[in-house]
């Protein structure tokens, strides 16, 4: 018998209410739900009983393997599972043919929507796991718009301090916290103002250069949708 497909379904801070009918139907049909424990509060009581919490991507892969393809498994992942998310990792480990991905709106999309700015030419980066961000700063110097997934090591105030310390002063900053939840908050300010504030861990930082660059770089000089490979070295 052919192994059951594993569905990777995106979910936001608004929980089941924010998902499409198609995504909800997939989640409801699962024998086993796998995802972080934080997902529990976003689910119905029946779904909560089927949720098996996993604390790492490695554990997630192990749990999928242990099922032997005999159960209908749905993996719950934050936002768009293929945008700095779960799907890329598990597909690389277990093969793309085993999975179907049902995306939700990513927090990066929501953040740009909240501040009503286009992100089609934005430099986007994830600061999680980076010990230094000098190369990110160098990229930011060359663009008018940037979107950053901040991290515990690099919260928005620390990013603002680094930018100011390296002479990058002209950006207007937005910090979008808890997007899609009742506690959502958007803070706007100069880099100096942001450097003096503290923020919750669930946030996206957007940088906008109000005046634009005098001589915009060519498209070839930009890296869109993510970090360049050398940032992981």
Could you write a compact summary of the structure shown?
This protein is an alpha/beta fold. It is 28% helix and 21% strand.
CATH topology of the largest domain: Methyltransferase, Cobalt-precorrin-4 Transmethylase, Domain 2
Class of secondary structure makeup: alpha/beta
3D shape: elongated
What's the Cα radius of gyration? 19 Å
CATH hierarchy: architecture of the largest domain = 2-Layer Sandwich
Largest beta-sheet details: 5 strands, parallel
Q: What count of structural domains?
A: 2
Structure notes:
The protein has 233 residues and is of the alpha/beta class. The chain has two domains: 6-105, Cobalt-precorrin-4 Transmethylase, domain 1; 108-232, Methyltransferase, Cobalt-precorrin-4 Transmethylase, Domain 2 (2-Layer Sandwich). It has eight helices and ten strands. It has a five-stranded parallel beta sheet with strand order 3-2-4-1-5, with helices on both faces. β2, α2 (45-50) and β3 (51-53) form a beta-alpha-beta unit. The longest helix is centred in the N-terminal third of the chain and has 10 residues, at 57-66. It is elongated and about 55 Å long. Residues 219-225 and 229-233 have low confidence and may be disordered.
Indicate the topology:
Elements: E1 6-11, H1 21-28, E2 32-35, H2 45-50, E3 51-53, H3 57-66, E4 73-78, H4 86-94, E5 99-102, H5 107-115, E6 123-126, H6 134-141, E7 145-149, H7 156-165, E8 172-177, E9 185-190, H8 191-195, E10 203-208
Helix pairs in contact: 3-4
